[in-house]
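Milestone 3.1: sequence recovery, worked example.
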């Protein structure tokens, strides 16, 4: 291959990378604008809602909170207490102890005065069998609580057990380590109650990071900024993702994922599609895509809604090892879901779902780390060949960096104008300063985890779900 041919190839790659970067930045700007409008509309409309009506009405639809637990003894008693403290009239809580090897079950039995109960399970979805069985409390104060002890089958299998047992119209699937605010169910059920010509099949909410926050009696009483730089960076990442990303996709009815940490599903639709897929590590995304596909193929109007209120707080990884393991799993889950449902992509029979949502996730989520890695290799080749136009390269890098910082500041500004959770003096300035550091503190590790996730998906036969070691939240009895 002669020199002129190499230069032509490099020039083509140059324009392709530039076009991709331009398209990505443009999409982020457009989504931010749509998100801002949606947030303003939500806050205006929500200011007229009296949630006491939902709280006090016996006509409020029934909701079952399903919380899988595996080796969660560190937090499980406090977290169950928070689930039982919800201000909603018609709900119950099912804890699925998924073959835990620690003393999670014993702690629950002692704290909530549990005893074995006779219970017939209608197995609509195949799951792993029971181990110790079904437990209910002798104490009337905990009559809403049920604990299921079963053989280990993974999170998806545990959620399917909850779907089999639930007798409610809707199910709220939540990680047991998450802290649910008292009014969470009231706000999350609202989209299902609104009269429209489209059926709401799922709703999700904002997830916030609870590291270093103070929790008392299962309730969040004080929001603090963590000292750990990795956790601080994840706060910025979550603000961008939830306030500037998912709000916009909710407006476009294009959400492909409801966070596994907390979301509500229409149980009838969830069971109709076969429940959660136990063969994927991204079960939260996969079931939403499958439910949407099911509704599209039935030619029924539907929506996947999103609530911007910070209703659920969770513990984020505070070490890079655990963080990389988590993001590796997220990457593999995305690959599995998009590959399994590739029939949807660019298919006009699926409307905007196939022509807008799927392509965006494929190009700007699934392929982004691959394209970025190829871009870095391309730049190294240019350096070796001494073909770098440094004034152009440096300008491009500076502009990319400044856009990243600006995007984070916009997310912080949106948070400040809306929910303003970080009220303590000086916190805002720290987060603005962090927005300048975060591209170096967080992004390289996200890229590494995504590349490793791609490698593990295609070449590592021993694919693991990944562990999330908990250190426990700052709780006060």
């Amino acid at each position: 291959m002669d020199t002129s041919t190499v230069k032509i190839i490099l020039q083509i790659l140059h324009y392709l990378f530039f076009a991709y970067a331009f398209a990505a930045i443009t999409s982020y700007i457009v989504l931010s604008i749509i998100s801002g409008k949606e947030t303003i509309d939500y806050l205006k409309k929500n200011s007229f809602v009296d949630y006491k009506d939902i709280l006090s009405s016996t006509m409020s639809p029934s909701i079952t909170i399903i919380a899988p637990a595996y080796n969660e003894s560190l937090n499980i008693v406090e977290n169950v207490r928070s689930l039982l403290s919800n201000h909603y009239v018609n709900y119950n809580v099912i804890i699925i102890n998924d073959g835990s090897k620690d003393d999670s079950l014993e702690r629950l039995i002692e704290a909530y005065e549990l005893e074995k109960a006779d219970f017939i399970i209608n197995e609509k979805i195949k799951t792993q069998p029971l181990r110790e069985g079904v437990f209910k409390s002798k104490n009337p104060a905990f009559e809403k609580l049920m604990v299921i002890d079963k053989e280990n089958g993974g999170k998806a299998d545990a959620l399917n057990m909850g779907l089999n047992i639930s007798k409610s119209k809707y199910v709220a699937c939540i990680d047991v380590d998450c802290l649910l605010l008292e009014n969470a169910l009231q706000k999350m059920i609202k989209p299902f109650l609104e009269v429209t010509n489209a059926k709401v099949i799922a709703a999700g909410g904002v997830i916030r990071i609870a590291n270093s926050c103070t929790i008392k009696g299962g309730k969040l009483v004080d929001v603090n900024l963590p000292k750990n730089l990795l956790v601080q960076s994840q706060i910025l990442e979550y603000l961008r993702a939830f306030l500037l990303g998912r709000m916009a996709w909710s407006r476009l009815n294009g959400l492909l994922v409801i966070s596994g940490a907390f979301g509500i599903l229409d149980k009838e639709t969830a069971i109709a599609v076969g429940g959660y897929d136990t063969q994927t590590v991204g079960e939260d995304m996969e079931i939403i895509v499958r439910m949407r596909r099911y509704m599209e193929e039935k030619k029924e109007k539907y929506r996947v809604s999103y609530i911007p209120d910070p209703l659920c707080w969770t513990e984020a990884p505070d070490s890079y090892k655990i963080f990389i393991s988590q993001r590796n799993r997220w990457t593999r889950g995305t690959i599995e879901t998009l590959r399994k449902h590739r029939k949807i992509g660019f298919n006009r029979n699926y409307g905007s779902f196939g022509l807008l949502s799927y392509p965006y996730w494929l190009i700007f989520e699934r392929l982004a780390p691959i394209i970025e890695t190829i871009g870095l290799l391309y730049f190294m080749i240019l350096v070796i060949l001494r073909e770098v136009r440094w004034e152009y390269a440096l300008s491009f890098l500076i502009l990319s960096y400044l856009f990243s910082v600006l995007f984070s500041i916009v997310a912080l500004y949106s948070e400040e104008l809306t929910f303003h959770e970080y009220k303590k003096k000086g916190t805002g300035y720290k987060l603005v300063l962090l927005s300048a550091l975060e591209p170096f503190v967080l992004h390289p590790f996200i890229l590494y985890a995504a590349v490793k996730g791609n490698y593990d998906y295609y070449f590592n036969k021993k694919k693991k779900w990944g562990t999330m070691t908990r250190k426990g939240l700052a709780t006060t009895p």
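The chain has a mean pLDDT of 90. The longest helix spans residues 3-46.
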